[in-house]
Amino acid sequence: MDGLPWPPPRGDNRPVITGFNSDVKYRGLVYHVQTEDKGQVKPLIETLIYRGGEILASRRLPYAELIEGQDVEDAISRLMEEQHNAMILEVKRGGFAPAAEDRPSEDLSLDEIVLAFLAARAAR
Question: C or N terminus of the chain, fewer CB within 10 Å?
Fold first, then answer.
């Protein structure tokens, strides 16, 4: 690459803040929640939710105005943790779950199977 530095410089003097990665189970499905800081050049916290390699949702929080006059690293770390935990809660509350008919039957509890049977029978 003709003497170009690798990796390319970030463009800021602030150390990289380690992001968060969590696997969250909901009704037999595993979701991956990933949060990262995009850095001083692009002051943005981004959280992505994956299931099976597919991005289901993203949340972006621009923070330049939010942290003025604060201890930057601590403020960014707090914002990252809060956003990450909020997205985990959304997963645990079923916010990204597929519709019941899209879930594999082996993930259903006995109660759910009985309710689905009764609902189908009542619809006849």
Answer: C
Per-residue burial over 17-39, b if 16 or more Cβ lie within 10 Å, else e, is eeebeeebebeebebbbbbbbee
Number of domains in the chain: 1
Note the pTM of the prediction, 2 decimals: 0.67
Q: Is 104 within a domain?
A: no
Phi, psi for residue 20 in degrees, rounded to 5: -125, 140
End-to-end Cα spacing for the chain: 68
Instruction: Evaluate whether residue 77 is within a structural domain.
Output: yes
Query: Beta-strand (E) ranges in 19-124?
Result: 20-26, 29-37, 44-51, 54-62
What pLDDT, in 10s, does the model give residues 9-40? Answer: 445 556 667 799 999 999 899 999 999 999 88
Q: Which two tokens stand for residue 70?
A: 């604060």
CB atoms within 10 A of CB 114: 11
